[in-house]
Amino acid sequence: MSNYEAAEYGEAVGDHYDRFYPSAAGETDAAVSRLAQLANSRPECSVLEFGIGTGRLAIPLHQLGISVSGIDGSERMIRQLRAKPGGAEIEVMIGDYRHGRIKERRFALVVLAFNGIFDERGLDAQLDIFRNAGRHLCPGGFFVIETWVMSDAQRNGSWSVMPRFVGERHVELQMARFDIDRNSIERTLIHILPDGMNFISVSDTYASPGELDVMAKVTGFRRVARYARWDGAEFTAASTGCISVYQRECD
């Protein structure tokens, strides 16, 4: 999903995003703990989130005393962030994290969660995101990317259907099809709610963990860690999730 497309998606669901995607407390806590540990390992101790959204990660980091900024394309999502305790204190730029710049700032860490690197605009956009992270980072700073990992069954070009969330009053189904020639994923997200259904179509440019490593290499990063989950679980061939930690090479 491109940042432009994510902005449109944010405008469509921003008022209900936290209800649509209630994050498991343990998962969010583990993510915040991992990011805080990385930020605190650098003298700058500051975090920039590409796609800051409603503040799922940013607000708990801010509550820990870490300086947090963000770039996001959806004003509706940012209004939800601002309405939360401490949200108004977080610096946010409305724009595209492919090129948007928080000027005169260098950060210890840039994070892009929830598959944001799967930008619809393709490889050029993905490389630009790496480069923009590098422009914001101090030498030796970290770029952390969260993605899901495609299974062999999902690569066969057929439509797959899977539940992304199942709650008492909300179910989300995802219909997806992978195009191996274009390395793209076509998706339709179906929200089933008591008052009706909502359909949203999005596209992604997939990148495997190995492909992310190549992008990192050609944009001045080196991989320093990879986990299956935020809690540090070992990444294996069977992992369905991937947390990749890259470090900016010193100038």
Give a summary of the structure in a few sentences.
This protein is α/β, with parallel strands linked by helices and 251 residues long.
Blueprint of the fold:
Elements: H1 3-13, H2 17-20, H3 25-40, E1 46-50, H4 58-63, E2 67-72, H5 75-82, E3 91-94, E4 107-112, H6 123-136, E5 137-148, E6 160-166, E7 171-179, E8 184-193, E9 196-205, H7 209-218, E10 221-227, E11 241-248
Parallel strand pairs: 1-2, 1-4, 2-3, 4-5
Antiparallel strand pairs: 5-11, 6-7, 7-8, 8-9, 10-11
CATH class of the largest domain: Alpha Beta
Major beta sheet, strand line-up = 3-2-1-4-5-11-10
Mean pLDDT: 90
Strand tally is 11
For the record, what is the CATH homologous superfamily label of the largest domain? Vaccinia Virus protein VP39
Q: What is the terminal separation in angstroms?
A: 32 Å
What is the CATH T-level topology of the largest domain? Rossmann fold
* CATH architectural grouping of the largest domain: 3-Layer(aba) Sandwich
Helix content: 25-40%
**Biggest sheet layout:** 7 strands, mixed
Order of helices and strands: HHHEHEHEEHEEEEEHEE
Q: What would you call the shape? A: globular
Which stretches are poorly predicted, pLDDT < 50 over at least 5 residues?
Answer: none
Structural class: alpha/beta
| Tally of domains | 2
**Number of distinct helices:** 7
Q: Mind telling me the C-alpha Rg?
A: 17 Å
Strand content: 25-35%
